[in-house]
Design goal:
15 strands, 35% helix, 11 helices, alpha/beta, elongated
Length: 330
């Protein structure tokens, strides 16, 4: 892997800056030159089908394996030239818990404190604070194998935080958790970011990326198929529309005769207007209704969700208006 950084002066606010990252296993190219810039104090979500290379990217950026090409800077350190400095700045929680079930939660934490070479008194203070923060104080003296799945994941992240990392890699952190535990984990991630930590998240739950991530990238066939905010990605996919429903047939006919590019539903007295879901387009429709005095009894905005985006970007099939959508009633 090249030791060259991304340009002479990578963006100062970038916690992670990646250029042309490549990795192959035999004849299979897993990462085919990906570029990323992740601002400090944000959540970045990497999505992709199974086998797309998400875990490989995490392993490279967390120094567990080396890339075949490209360059990266993590927390200001060159990944290839300064791996020890990178390790000191990051924490990693993988798909599978690193918790030792045969010892207590507190003992797992103290072991991490020893690995980080914290002085004994400081280590115990840090461990006690983290156990309380993650609501594990009551269970601290119990064997970790007795913990629920959600408790083990909380302990896993608490162990990661013993070294006070500035950047945390979470590789599918909520896989296998029940909905309540998943939502609890989301709150923990939000609190970490509000404290200035940068979170690099891989997930198979699109709702999770929608809820948490400031920016999202979709990895497919070793390349970044698209990157942006959740709203920006949703606007890439056709099928968004504004739906007007009328109870007055005369108002319906007047609107249908004036509004262009509409799809009519004469039985339901409804019009469907193509829209990217932007405030500008919605305001344009509302202004027209106000200026003409035409009364629509119901207005709903339909926008593609991340399921639609993921499906379209990873299969090459763009879902139409009949696909899954979110509605916001006026």
């Amino acid at each position: 892997m090249s030791t060259a950084s991304r340009g002479d002066d990578p963006r100062p606010s970038a916690a992670i800056s990646v250029t042309g990252l490549r990795k192959s296993y035999g004849d299979k190219t897993v990462l085919d030159g990906i570029d990323l810039d992740i601002p400090a104090g944000s959540v970045f979500a990497l999505l992709g089908p199974n086998g797309a290379g998400k875990t490989t990217a995490v392993k490279i950026l967390s120094t567990l394996i080396t890339a075949d090409g490209g360059s990266a800077r993590i927390a200001g350190h060159d990944l290839a030239a300064e791996p020890q400095a990178v390790r000191a700045a990051i924490g990693v929680t993988g798909q599978f818990s690193a918790v030792d079930g045969l010892i207590t939660g507190e003992e797992n934490m103290l072991l991490m404190a020893d690995l980080h070479r914290l002085p004994r008194q400081e280590g115990r203070r840090v461990v006690a604070e983290l156990l309380e923060r993650f609501d594990l104080t009551e269970a601290a003296k119990k064997p970790a194998q007795s913990y629920s799945g959600g408790m083990k994941r909380r302990l896993d992240i608490a162990m990661t935080l013993v070294g006070a990392p500035r950047i945390i890699f979470l590789d599918e952190p909520t896989t296998g958790l029940d909905p309540r535990s998943r939502h609890n984990m989301w709150q923990i991630i939000r609190e970490l970011v509000s404290g200035g930590v940068t979170v690099f998240l891989t997930t198979q739950y699109l709702e999770e990326a929608d809820e948490l991530a400031h920016r999202i990238a979709v990895l497919n066939d070793g390349r970044i198929a698209a990157e942006g905010t959740a709203d920006e990605l949703k606007r890439l996919i056709p099928g968004g529309h504004i739906r007007l429903r009328f109870t007055d047939p005369a108002a319906y006919q007047e609107a249908a005769s004036v509004l262009r590019e509409t799809t009519r539903d004469d039985e339901a007295l409804a019009l469907q207007i193509p829209s990217d879901g932007s405030q500008r387009e919605l305001r344009s429709v509302l202004d027209w209704l106000d200026s003409t005095g035409v009364e629509a009894d119901e207005l709903t905005v339909h926008t593609p969700d991340l399921d639609d985006v993921f499906f379209a970007l990873t299969s090459g099939t763009v879902p139409g208006p009949a696909g899954k959508s979110k509605e916001n009633a006026r």
